[in-house]
Amino acid sequence: MDQNNIREEIGGIVNKIIADYNGGKNIDAVDIFNKPDRNEVIDIVNNLFSVVYPGYFKDRSYKSYNPENGVAVITEDIFYRLNKQVSLALDFCKTRDQMCEEERKEESYRVCKAFFEKIPAIREFLETDLLATLDGDPAAKSFEEIILAYPGFIAITIYRLAHELYLLDVPVIPRLMTEYAHSKTGIDIHPGATIGKSFFIDHGTGIVVGETSVIGENVKIYQGVTIGALSTRGGQKLSGKKRHPTIEDNVVIYAGASILGGDTIIGKNSVIGGNTFITSSVPADTRVSIKNPEMEYRSAGGKEPVKEEIKQSDEWFYII
Amino acid sequence: MDQNNIREEIGGIVNKIIADYNGGKNIDAVDIFNKPDRNEVIDIVNNLFSVVYPGYFKDRSYKSYNPENGVAVITEDIFYRLNKQVSLALDFCKTRDQMCEEERKEESYRVCKAFFEKIPAIREFLETDLLATLDGDPAAKSFEEIILAYPGFIAITIYRLAHELYLLDVPVIPRLMTEYAHSKTGIDIHPGATIGKSFFIDHGTGIVVGETSVIGENVKIYQGVTIGALSTRGGQKLSGKKRHPTIEDNVVIYAGASILGGDTIIGKNSVIGGNTFITSSVPADTRVSIKNPEMEYRSAGGKEPVKEEIKQSDEWFYII
Amino acid sequence: MDQNNIREEIGGIVNKIIADYNGGKNIDAVDIFNKPDRNEVIDIVNNLFSVVYPGYFKDRSYKSYNPENGVAVITEDIFYRLNKQVSLALDFCKTRDQMCEEERKEESYRVCKAFFEKIPAIREFLETDLLATLDGDPAAKSFEEIILAYPGFIAITIYRLAHELYLLDVPVIPRLMTEYAHSKTGIDIHPGATIGKSFFIDHGTGIVVGETSVIGENVKIYQGVTIGALSTRGGQKLSGKKRHPTIEDNVVIYAGASILGGDTIIGKNSVIGGNTFITSSVPADTRVSIKNPEMEYRSAGGKEPVKEEIKQSDEWFYII
């Protein structure tokens, strides 16, 4: 193959791709220079773990003999970096009036200050989540194991941080944070959800908690639980409406249950069995389960029903 | 502990491991030097996001004042790197005759040229997917949020890129790309599937779209949907046969539905409710739901049925 | 904004965060310097892939013409690094008596030696898993594709490595390893589970295999399968008890099935259909399926039942 030829051909292909950028597509943003950077936001999230769990996560950039000094350096560093990203995100938001450069800087500083001032309060919640996790899982061996390895605990941590930025009206960044958690853990909690203390998630893959969900204190949920909406045939017209359920204090929701709709309230102390499907409110102190599901048992050939009846356990169907 | 002793012991263990490589296992490939590199393929995929969504993803290697210059540099760079990986993958494929070095280079260049020439056409599809996502999700706040954060949109992007390489008969690499998407998003779309314009995925964790699926335009699917095969008792004998369903235009498939089998066709405009289980064709303009699922409600002690009857919503069971 | 002011304000916020570290929370570990490092453990796991699948994974640090030399260097390197992490983890475990520095070093060396001596035996299992995967999936095109891309195979590999460290009583690290696999694949296998040869997982997202599960040889499982516990109302009191099922040889468990409880045994050669829910033992050579699930079919308006009856396939409901 002739190298000159190849160079020319590739140049031609590249030019066609660049020409295509001028077709007025929404997937193009060549004219906008300054946007939040996904990788930078993810890096900030990872560093925030060192701040909220001091001593548990090693930092490779700053070596210091006094860990508190290390945390001070990291915290200031994240403050400046988050400030930068928030300022880009504010600019970013098309529904606000464009604030002038100076106003935007002041607003992003105000937001970051408010966020970092909230960290002790966030840590108070996380401490209760940690205790709830140890208490809830017989396989949990130590606090360290939970903090370093449990996907539910990682997802809750990132949600609690993102939720504060959501409350401060920062666009894009809170969702970037919780989608990073979703990617790492399979747990999809919208930063707009409201979740009380002592929240416990086990296993977690497939969990969805929608934007307008309200969850009380001391709630436990397991893998595959959806706290979701009914039909969104309304599309963007439903934006901002309460579309997701309210879960009161001390409720347990076992694996695979779906609880749906903005008017659905699960009363306190109720227990929602595995694989249930709930679209209307449940009073307090109630246990809900699927009717003992009927199975068919046949011999290997697939023709003969098995003679002896096989009964399912009388245990409530709490899948874990 | 004697350091010499330790060194000797470790050396002995290493030797036993290396000796084990000569046992003729399929997991060994010590004699083959040149193979596609998983990390390199993942890096190429990440850079392709800068090419298909210019301006949305920052590149850290190339700083340029004209973003189009940046894209030109990245595009040429990926061209050369993909070319290298494709050439290794062609060599790799055991079912083809070994092509001589020169032929392989020519084939991989031909493949890469065809792939990059397809990028404007791929971008046309992605623009429709973006609009479908904003339209379908009341929680979506901006195009930026969708492009930077939505797992469904990330999975569709990677699938559309991988599918073109699949159509060009490149081995291994398309699957490496979609499995990277699977790892990031929990959405498992085989690169062999055929998917029309304006495809929308919400939440996404647990979605499976099989190799021989055919999906029309303007289709929406939610978390946990399987578009899958019935029994594969045939194993490798089924390879290449149509084992997965056809979904026609404008179909909506709500969370947790399973649609199975190569002869199953979901007719256009049909709506498939959450948690349904479908193994035969559904005519056009049909709504399918599970029968109102029966639940048991008991008081906290678990013995007493709750007196007042709790009725599920009359809403169709569209889980989101 | 006055830069001095800003510096002072940020300093004040940082001080409040640091002051909060002295509140006696379990999420604080500022006084403990030496802990296992999650990122280091993940890096060790990634390098172990080069050791168990020589030639399949490129190493970027060590270039060598003889791949066996490369493996020898990597193996020694991981040995020393794992030794360090195990020694930190042993210290870490609060339920053991604090061993003195020297004893801890000896114990971690003993553990690492035992682990690396097991690698040929682990590789023997992995070879059978590879063959089972090719055999089980009509979409599998080559061994290379499986080793480089299949999430089920990645999860099994990491589980088999972590399980050996679990058997050697190493705290924290085995779970860090399997949670890394969970994060990458959506497959959550506890390192304590016991799993025989020729294990095959397809798709995989949402799979949970609990700590005390026992799985025989030649077992296949699909996405969304839970091999789990019934209620853990006992919490930490259940720690150590057998809470998860036993699956005998040659069993197939299709997508979405839940098999629950420590006394539940699935007898050999049985086939468990998709979406089933099993809380008591099933004899050998049995096929279990959900009763043909009833669906409602209505015309698009949602009011009119579709006239012609739509029958589900007579195929057993094996979702894939």
Question: Describe it for me?
Answer:
3 copies of one chain form a homotrimer. The first copy, chain A, has about 325 residues and is α/β, with parallel strands linked by helices. Chain A folds into 3 domains: about 1-30; about 30-190, serine acetyltransferase, domain 1 (Orthogonal Bundle), CATH 1.10.3130; about 195-320, 3 Solenoid (UDP N-Acetylglucosamine Acyltransferase, domain 1), CATH 2.160.10. The first copy, chain A, is built from 8 helices and 15 strands. In chain A, α3 (about 65-90) crosses α4. Chain A is globular and about 75 Å long. The termini of chain A are far apart. In chain A, about 55% of the residues are buried. At the A-B interface, α1, α2, α8, β13 and β14 of A face α3, α4, α5, α6 and β15 of B. β14 of chain A pairs antiparallel with β15 (about 295-300) of chain B.
Number of strands of chain A: 15
Name the CATH homologous superfamily of the largest domain in chain A.
serine acetyltransferase, domain 1
Elements of chain A, N to C (H/E): HHHHHHHHEEEEEEEEEEEEEEE
Oligomeric description of these chains: homotrimer
List the helices and strands and how they pair.
3 copies of one chain form a homotrimer.
Chain A: H1 3-20, H2 38-52, H3 67-92, H4 101-117, H5 119-136, H6 143-149, H7 151-167, H8 173-185, E1 188-189, E2 194-195, E3 200-202, E4 208-209, E5 214-215, E6 220-222, E7 226-228, E8 246-247, E9 252-253, E10 258-260, E11 265-266, E12 271-272, E13 277-278, E14 286-290, E15 295-299
Helix pairs in contact in A: 2-3, 2-8, 3-4, 5-7, 7-8
